[in-house]
Amino acid sequence: MSPDLWMILAFAGLLIAGVPVAFSLALAGAVGIVMGLPPAMLATLGTNTYNSIAKYPLIAIPLFIMTGLIFERAGVALRLVRFAQALIGPRHGGLALVAVLVCMIMGGMSGSGPADAAAVAMVMLPSMTKAGYPKPFSATLIAASASTAILIPPSVALILYSIVVPGVDLRALFAAGLFPGILAGLALLVPALLVSRRYGWEGGNAMPLAERPKVRESFKQALPALFAPVLILGGLRSGLFTPTEAAVVAVAYGALVGLFLTREIGWRDLWSLFGEAAVISGVVMLIIALAGIFAWAGTMLGTFRHLAEWIIGLSDSGVLLLILIMLAVLLAGMLLDAISIYLIMMPILIPVMQHFGWNPVWFGILLAMNIAIGQFTPPVAVNLMVTTEIAKIRLEQTVGWALLFVLAMACALALVATFPEIALWLPRVLGYNV
């Protein structure tokens, strides 16, 4: 067998055997080096792991993870829910609408789907259950809505994409993800409202008038949370700070909100949050670091080039290949996390993207939308695992609802694929390089 095949089979075999993705990538890369390169090349393992994470933009990832944890603990989700309830009031599907809107706003703070799913589920699930929504439906809707965090800036996945794909402006990616993220949220909202009306969940008397939050009071309480996305995106647009500096500003702002405005976290809580963020960031950085071995071996052996040439040779139709790639990424998203997918697939897909002249910003948004769908599609479905754990239900109970929302978001994906300007219009207007 060729070294290419040895490396690919080693990676697949390790994954099937249950070896964590990070170590599967590293060991498969080492197998490729041993089978196709001089054994002395094993000395590059340390250098490759270091070079993979020695990149300035990667500093933003642990900082945005920290931002998400702070806002989650600071009671921001509860205040956003109360404000949304005050605006929408009791009606069929009202709480479903609240859940989707709050998930989208929370996504504009942390860029992490699982973190948003946890924060919103803790607040929304008891209210939705009391109003008559089945727990499997509520858990699936929140998991699907939280997946928009991968699109709505700031997005941890888009930060990594900008590093993996040379020459892509992260600010353009952030701007390009806004409208597709909103479109994805609306696509989830339509079936949620229709189903709520069909089954009569949460009628007009679900919330007594005395329990309905007052708009002015709830707005004041939610204002610090609503200002967070404005601060981050406004600072990026004005040039006041870079995306990495925006992450620092977001952490500082979140700490101020939690310590002095909501007063739901103390200095000791802040210290524990730093530790929790360090653990999560360490896992992410370990995947990125060890994937560097796999990437270097694949490049030196020509594995990625051979796979790209094979994909290009499948068809002369760019549309057909785009559909096949989207299906492959969707399948990968059902099994792997976003970071692993980018690190594994992008070295193969970059030559294909260049061959057909696809816009890298638009293509990055399509990949992100696909990965977002995978976050709530069984069997792995990281967002869904979080919400079902909070709801105390089995993952299998959500499969039917998950398929409904997968279909809804797939329609949004098809619209962005058919009309690229949905993603590219805003970065062009803002003057970013697309």
UniProtKB/TrEMBL annotation:
Protein name per UniProt: TRAP transporter large permease protein
Pfam families listed in its UniProt record: DctM
Stretches assigned to the TRAP C4-dicarboxylate transport system permease DctM subunit domain: 9-422
Subcellular location: Cell inner membrane
Protein family: Belongs to the TRAP transporter large permease family.
Quaternary structure note: The complex comprises the extracytoplasmic solute receptor protein and the two transmembrane proteins.
UniProt KW Membrane keyword: yes
Entry membrane topology: Multi-pass membrane protein
Transmembrane regions: 52-71, 92-111, 140-164, 170-195, 246-262, 274-298, 310-332, 339-356, 362-386, 398-419
Entry annotated with the keyword GTP-binding: no
Listed NCBIfam families: dctM
Domain of life: Bacteria
InterPro entries the UniProt entry points to: DctM (IPR010656), TRAP_DctM (IPR004681)
Role: Part of the tripartite ATP-independent periplasmic (TRAP) transport system.
The entry's keywords: Cell inner membrane, Cell membrane, Membrane, Transmembrane, Transmembrane helix, Transport
